[in-house]
């Protein structure tokens, strides 16, 4: 069973993270969810999902929300005894979706002040998949330099840029396209969009 960490930060686009978690669980993945303080605020504002700041209650809340039981785990960001904090128990992949420029900058600088940043650092040092989904526009030169530095260190940058050639009709269509691209990068099968060159769904 694949083990994937999904981080949600304070960038706009928290719906991408929720939809990604849903699809990973559907595919039988063990998912660890890490949410920053700003991520909780944006998540509540954009989706109405208000997560309890207490780790145990938040875990039960997320398990109920996704109907996931023991396939979903959650840890407080100051819990460095969590499995994701150690290279000896590294997840198969870490996805930060959406990824704020602040989080990207701290990871690019090698800083690990919380469990999410540490999990990303572990992914890089253990040569595991680190996938960042930035949702920022426009980028300034500092953003671009940080993203390049992360790419050079082994991370994959997958900006939240939905395509329109599938002629999306709803916001959900746009979200599903992006989540499908993330799943492609994780080698997780999905049916979220029809492939280019195939018959229109």
Short description:
The protein is α/β, with parallel strands linked by helices. The chain has helices at residues 14-26, 37-47, 55-66, 101-108, 115-125, 141-153, 171-185; strands at residues 3-8, 30-35, 72-74, 93-99, 129-134, 156-157.
Low-confidence segments, given as residue ranges, are: none
CATH architecture: 3-Layer(aba) Sandwich
Give the number of domains.
Answer: 1
Over all CA atoms, what is the radius of gyration?
Answer: 16 Å
Strand order of the largest sheet: 3-2-1-4-5-6
Portion in beta strands: 5-15%
How would you characterize this protein structure?
The longest helix is centred in the last third of the chain and has 15 residues, at 171-185. This protein has a six-stranded parallel sheet, with helices on both faces. Strand 1 (3-8), helix 1 (14-26) and strand 2 (30-35) form a beta-alpha-beta unit. The protein is built from seven helices and six strands, in the order E-H-E-H-H-E-E-H-H-E-H-E-H. It has helices spanning 14-26, 37-47, 55-66, 101-108, 115-125, 141-153, 171-185, and strands at 3-8, 30-35, 72-74, 93-99, 129-134, 156-157. The chain has a single domain (3-185), classed as 3-Layer(aba) Sandwich (Rossmann fold), CATH 3.40.50.1950. It is α/β, with parallel strands linked by helices and 201 residues long.
